[in-house]
């Protein structure tokens, strides 16, 4: 095995691990948003990841992810909220005014 093959092998492993990390973050976001909606008596309609990039905030390198989620306060209207996460930790949740 040459050095080039070894480097390529490690890059493939690193890419796979980061893919699983981002999937894990997305699953955690879905759970966190679901809990948030349940706590505030909102109906969760959908969750989508908008953006993911590396961040150097809070003293370590981790993924900064932004999610958009749709919810309803009264079962008839649809609103879009936003959640920002670093790794698996929610740092910001923004909701527009909505009808109850």
Automatic annotation (TrEMBL):
* Tree of life domain: Bacteria
What InterPro entries does the record point to?
A: DUF3301
- Pfam families under this entry? DUF3301
* Protein name according to UniProt: DUF3301 domain-containing protein
């Amino acid at each position: 095995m040459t050095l080039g093959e070894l480097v390529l092998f490690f890059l493939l492993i690193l890419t796979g691990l980061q893919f699983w990390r981002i999937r894990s973050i997305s699953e955690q976001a879905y759970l966190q948003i679901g809990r948030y909606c349940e706590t505030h008596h909102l109906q969760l309609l959908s969750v989508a990841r908008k953006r993911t990039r590396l961040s150097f905030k809070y003293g370590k390198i981790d993924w900064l992810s932004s999610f958009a989620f749709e919810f309803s306060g009264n079962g008839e209207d649809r609103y879009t909220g936003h959640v920002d996460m670093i790794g698996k930790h929610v740092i910001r949740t923004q909701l527009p005014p909505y009808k109850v």
